[in-house]
Amino acid sequence: MDKSNNSSKNHLNSFYPDEREHVELFVSCREIKRHSPNIQVKLYTEKNGQYEFDSETEVIKQNVNPNFMTSLIVDYFFSVKQILKFEVVEVSKSEVKQVVLGEIITTLGEIVGARNQTVTYELTTKPHNKVELIGKLIVRVEKVNYTSHLSNLTFRAEELKLHKGLFSKGLPEVALRLYRRIADTEYNIIYQSEKKSKTDAPRWRRVSMKTQKMCNGESDRPIKVEVIRCSGKTYSTVGECYFTLEQLTQHQNSELILDLIHPKSNKKQGVLHIEDIELVEKPHFLDYLRSGLQLNLMIGIDFTSSNGDPSSHDSLHAHHKDGSYNEYQKAIKGVCDILLNYDTDKRVLMFGFGGITSFPNFSTKLTSQCFPLTGDPKNPWVEGIEGIMETYKKCFEYIELASPTYFEPILRQAMRIAKKNKDAGSEEYTILLILTDGKCHDMQDSINAIIESCYLPLSVIIVGVGNEDFTRMKILDGDDGLINDEGREAERDLVQFVPFLEYENNPDLLAKHVLEEIPEQVVEYMISQKIVPQGIDDKFSSRLLTNLMTMDDYEVPNETAREPIEERLIDPETPGTTKSSHARYFQSVEVDQTEAVIFKSHRRSQSSTVTLVGLGDPKHFTRALSFMKKNNNKFDPSKYSCTNNQNPPSGIGSMIFNKKGKSASITSETTDSKSTPKS
Question: Are residues 484 and 470 part of one domain?
Fold first, then answer.
């Protein structure tokens, strides 16, 4: 399968590799002749006489003059006629239905070559063969100056002159907007904060943004800040000011203080403070992959009765006698084919929720919201896409579809795994794939769990199966922000919603929408944890020393599925295998009876054990000892020294450590053999 974002781009790149440039399109609409419309713009590129979807803006609600924050980045080739189609669509309140209001077919060259690189098009439609003007589409273009720098800023205001409304009982809500200059006097909105109420000294959530988006990487280009007063569907300007990237650079160790001026009266309306200024080199997703990041896939499938009786041909879980796939099988195959490319060992955890189970080793009398689809709590893994599809097909004889639909238990199971990885120092990042028909009866509990997950190495992809109303899933997506029941806001975006039906016939587009937010989410998490990618040759390369993935933190929910109880998946008395890109696991051996740390020991007895792994390089074991000291303050790594290093043909190393005249060796074993400690 072609994993490109757009096949037409790849087609052009192969013929014109040296003249390609990236350009950024900013779009806005004016005078849309609809009453309080929800507007979105979609971009299509032409290939072989057919238009293929490329990208789209966000939906701006109830606005006849929308300025879109989401820009559209495309490849530009000077010598090629590149035909573009813009569709302006009206989206229903539930965002399920879309109606095309008008379309524009043009060329990228026409936009790039226009005066001020700005073109205004008239949007028309033809009801009853009569041309009707419905508004205007404005497209501005700018060449992309790529930079990896990231700006982290905190904005707060004080002394705002906020006047109470005639019928208002308190101060109005206020928000902050950032604008990028795209012409001498033209500014395009690129960010809007959350709203703050009941204060004339608001402090907004910290902003993390690429300098390319703010000012195209140009240090002297003005960036506009606007503080707005919000009143229902309308807003008005309180005051505005300007700053540059150069000013931010000069104030990294202090704060930048600016007066907020009303654009019409030219009077001061308050003071804006830009604090905690950080300008950092932003790592790339590939940098983390090269330095050992491993993505692990976990699947949760909806087995609630709202999907329909599997014996019925119109059920989303239907068993088709001709062997054709049902809607879930199509979604599982389409999405997992993509995600498994980034799962190193292809071992996937499969769970279900919303069903009553009767597996020989796992049965419930009431609805369970987190159960292993293998039917074996001690072995919930399956191998590759074949194992995923076969496990799904076979599980129905042991599952009765039920209700209600709760997401929180499956989210918290993923959270336990991610937390285990984080606490252990592992370089694993978990991706939870939830496939559902869109019903959800514990929205606030699910939102609470997602907000808690912001500090964990976890992303969630929700795939909507069928054609139900997915409004609730789009809320969980969090593009408009998530707030838990204590008023705490999500620190980062970690949920991506994909309506499978829209993309099932276009694998390239499906791949784009499934994967487009994962790299940014991973990098955002790593930066929040101050984790910097390292070179492959300068790191502790066996990343699962810290996470031997015995699943001993797995909790099997009880019959009500709301109060989980503990059950160990793998016998703690038996050494387990570890998921590793090297497809090997390592056996621990006795070092000392009293002082050796038990980091991932499999028993607590008179003979304590140390688990060390490595690739035959002494520095790996030195780092292992340092790590173990970090996790157990009674362990003294200075009392151990490396005295020997062997490199067997397998490439896995053997290391001997001495302590107080005693010696013990750490040896490796593959999944097909057992190790024998050497003295």
Answer: yes
